[in-house]
Structures are given as C-alpha cells and as structure tokens.
Amino acid sequence: MNLLAEMTAKAQALNIPLSAQIDLTYRCNERCVHCYLDHDDHGEMTTDEIKHLLDEMADAGVFILTLSGGEIFLRKDFFEILEYARRLMFCVKLKTNGILIRERDAQRIKDLHVESIQISIYSHRPEVHDAITLVPGSLKRSIDAIRFLKSQGLKVIIANVLMTQNMADYAGVRALAAELGVDCTLDPTVTPMLDGNRSPLSLGVDVDALRHVFRDGALIGDVDEFCAVPPPAGENDLEATPCSAGHTACYVSPYGEVFPCVAFPFPTGNVRRQRFIDIWRHSDQMNEVRAIRVKDLTTCTACSHVSSCTRCPGLAYLEGNMRGPSTQDCEKSFARTGIPSANMLAKKRAGVNLVQIRALPTFASATA
Amino acid sequence: MSRLYLARNPKVAARSIGGEMMIMSGHDSTLFTLNQTAAILWQSADGSTPLDEIVDRRICAEFDVDRSEALQDAESLARELAGHQILQLSEAPIPQPAGHYAAKPAGPTGGSR
Ligand code: SF4
Ligand code: SF4
C-alpha cells in the first residue's frame, strides 16, 4: 500500500474528509456541448464565505483541495482565494479550461505552489475542440496556457472526455500531451446534468467505440488483463465501500451545498447554514451514503462484474437509485469483457431498452 | 558555535491526520509522514527558535535522552527534512509570513489539524 492509500484508509477509519472539491463558480467562458452545469450565477459564495469554509475544511482535516468550476479564473477574487488556501497548507489542485491564463498568471500559480493544473482538451484539431467548447480559438488559448504553466515548471494534466464528436482524436490528444510534456487522462463517461436531465448522454460514445478504446494497448496497457473475465466477488468485495464519496471525499457547490461528490448531487447540507464538520459528521444523508456497502446494492450484488466494475454511485443516483446499477458503467463492463451485466439481463428479461438514449447491440451478436 | 534556525518550507502542503503529520513536498509532490521527532521539529519550526532550544524544551524535557546525542540526531534529521524541502534551515532567524496556518497550535482534540 502506498502512503496516500495508507493515509486514505486512516482518514476513512477516523471519518476525516481527506479531499474536497469546491466549485468556485458555475459561470464559464466556454459552452461545452456536453457540460452538465447551469452557467447562470444563482448567488455564489462571497470571498469571505469561501475563506470561512476553507478554515473549516482545514480544521476538519481536508488535505487535498480541488478548486474547480465553471471557470475558476472568472472569479475576480480567484488569486485571493488561492493564496488563502495555500496559507492553510492545502495541497491545491486546479481544474480550468485555461483560456484566461497568461504568463503572469502562470507565474503567480507557481509562486503559490499549486500541486497540479488540469486543463480540458477535447481534440488536437481546432475545428473539433472549438466545435465542442463553442468558442473559436479556444484550443490555441488552452495550449498557450499549458505552455505558460509548463515553462514555470508546473505539473499540468490534460483531461479529455470521449464523445462521438472527438472519438477519432484521442490518440492525437495524447500525442499533443506528449509534445507538451504533460500527462493526459481520458474519461469515457459523459455525465447527466446536475438536475438529472440526461440529454448530454446522447453525446457519449457507444459500446462498439468503448470496446475499441478498451482494446487500445497504447492507452490501456495490458489489454488481456484489462478485459479479462471478472473474478468472482469475495467477501472483501462485498464488504467494501462503493467509492470515496462521503467516506474521505466531498464536494461543495458555489452556493454552499455539500454533496458526497461532484458527480453525486445528493444534498447533504449547506455551509451557509451549518458548519462544514457538522454536515460531514452528522448529516443523515451523508451518513446514509456512508452506510452503504457493496453487499447492499440492488442488482449489482447478483452481477458477475461486481468485483471489478467502475460503478459510480453518483450516476446510479442520477438514474434514480443510489443503491442501484449505473447503466453507463454496465456499458463499460460489457464493452471490456463482452459479458452482459445483471442490470442488462434484468432489463432484457423485462423487455426494456438498457440505455435510455441509445439501444445496445443485441447480446447474441455482442458476445459471439 | 553557530545556531541553527528552522522554518517550514512554504512550498509544502501539510495536515495532521489523526495525530500523524502528513506532508507533501512542494518540490516533487512526494508524500511523507513525520515520525515523532520530525513532527516536533515541524511544529517548532517557527523561524525564530534555534534548534538547541527546541531540543532542550521539546525533546530533553519530555524524553529521557542524552542532550548532545539528541542535538546531533535532531540536526541530522533537520538536514534530512531540509533535503526533502520540508524545512528551511539557516544560521540566522528566518522571517515568517503572517497568518501561516502551520503556526497555529494543535486543536483541543489533537485531532485533524
Ligand atoms: S465513483 Fe462517482 S460518486 Fe464515487 S468518487 Fe467517483 S465520480 Fe464520485
Ligand atoms: S456492471 Fe452494472 S449491474 Fe454489474 S456491478 Fe456494474 S453497475 Fe452493477
């Protein structure tokens, strides 16, 4: 076990929120076609409210702090908040589209010893990237930002989301990352909007495309291992907690709402009315999430994928049941292994299309 | 004999998790946890208290150790921590920025600060 895993296990045993994400704003200067946010400002936390929250988070034991949005650099007080967070000795990570970052901003970020900056890049081709962000010139500006940050010696990570529009370009983004000397992640999941609206899912790639990606050795490494038939679930798998959400991690929206995770919009309290630590420790909703073990999941416990599935409880919640399966993860498990999930089989028996947006190929042809 | 002053390196990230100090080096993001003596040095590294005073007040007063041995061990540990860019060392006092969190005392529960 590495040290971070050890400290995470310790934090979980002691009920300490080791990491937290704060979205400073939902406003954005891009209009990404797959974005799950409402970009209007409905009353963001003020500078003082955010500083107070940071004090409370430091006292509660938060170590890794991710500042995200919306676009964080749209907040005029961004550097004041960042400076305050670093004075509290958080390990700060930033998520941004980068298009407002100029050389002097990169210098300030460096001076404040930020751990890493994640920048979204959807394609190495401007015509594809800019058609996703809906901002002409945005690819160039994001790449300029990466160069400014890199020239300061900062750690930059390119984050790419796989969609039908950019499916052909993920290798190009990886090559761009290599040329820029930065890491690159690829997320094959498009998330529904925070209000449950599932229309962004129509932009996600289908199972055939996932199958192709999961068999790309350059991306996956050992394909045979990655796509292997899942091992049967052991007792430890069933006693495990589904993920870090609500156990060692949480999320706070620009309006002070606390959720178990940015992808899990189950309201647990609001720091404008309650102390952060009280929400973390005593909210009924947070404790409900915390009490769930894999053995409590409906459908998934009967699924052969349960020990290796990437099931996201937030996506399951957005489908209507935080203890239920997440259809998008069923698709991923199926694309990896060719074995239909318990959820898929149940829906097939019930004669329901698994995917609300798009039908899956029939199991007979997919498993042949 | 010159005296050695210690200050926390402002590049690091740090938090006490259940009484164990967790530090991330600002140099290469390596994670460390501090043993008891290293944690004492970290807590006492205010830029103005010399190492020999820290050893007298926080180590010799609390543990049954030989002073010169304790001082030698503390100095080599402080140099090791400085090598990982966790501490700054100087033969002169090191001015500290106002309001730095690590300068606050531990909370009443000794818990999650
Ligand atoms: S699995 Fe989903 S809810 Fe859990 S941490 Fe990951 S994104 Fe958040
Ligand atoms: S594949 Fe689907 S049903 Fe199976 S464990 Fe994953 S989310 Fe649950």
Shape of chain A: globular
CATH superfamily of chain B: Coenzyme PQQ synthesis protein D (PqqD)
Count of all domains of chain B: 1
The number of helical elements of chain B comes to 3
Q: Which two chains form the greatest contact, residue counts included?
A: A-B, 25 and 26 residues
Largest sheet of chain B, if any? 3 strands, antiparallel
Compute the number of helices of chain A: 17
Q: What is the terminal separation of chain A in angstroms?
A: 39 Å
Describe what this molecule looks like in 3D.
The complex is a heterodimer of chains A (368) and B (113). Chain A contains 17 helices and nine strands. The two termini of chain A are 39 Å apart. With 368 residues, chain A is of the alpha/beta class. Helices cover 39% and strands 12% of the residues of chain A. Mean pLDDT of chain A is 93; it is low at 356-368. In chain A, helix 2 (47-60) packs parallel to helix 3 (78-87) and helix 8 (207-214) crosses helix 15. Chain B has 113 residues and is of the alpha+beta class. Chain B is built from three helices and six strands, in the order E-E-E-E-H-E-H-H-E. In chain B, the strands form two sheets. Chain B has a three-stranded antiparallel beta sheet with strand order 5-1-6. The A-B interface holds A 3-4, 7, 10-11, 14, 16, 18, 58-63, 86-92, 113, 115-116, 155 and B 10-18, 20, 22, 24, 26, 29, 31-33, 97, 99-102, 107, 111-113. One iron/sulfur cluster is lined by residues 299-300, 303, 305-306, 309, 311, 325-326, 329-330, 333, 341-343 of chain A.
Topology:
The complex is a heterodimer of chains A (368) and B (113).
Chain A: H1 3-14, E1 19-25, H2 47-60, E2 64-69, H3 78-87, E3 91-96, H4 103-111, E4 116-120, H5 126-133, H6 138-151, E5 156-161, H7 170-180, E6 183-187, H8 207-214, H9 217-220, H10 223-226, H11 235-239, E7 249-252, E8 257-259, E9 269-270, H12 276-282, H13 284-291, H14 313-318, H15 327-337, H16 342-349, H17 363-367
Chain B: E1 5-8, E2 13-17, E3 20-24, E4 31-33, H1 36-44, E5 46-50, H2 51-60, H3 67-83, E6 87-90
Antiparallel strand pairs in B: 1-5, 1-6, 2-3, 3-4
Helix pairs in contact in B: 1-2, 2-3
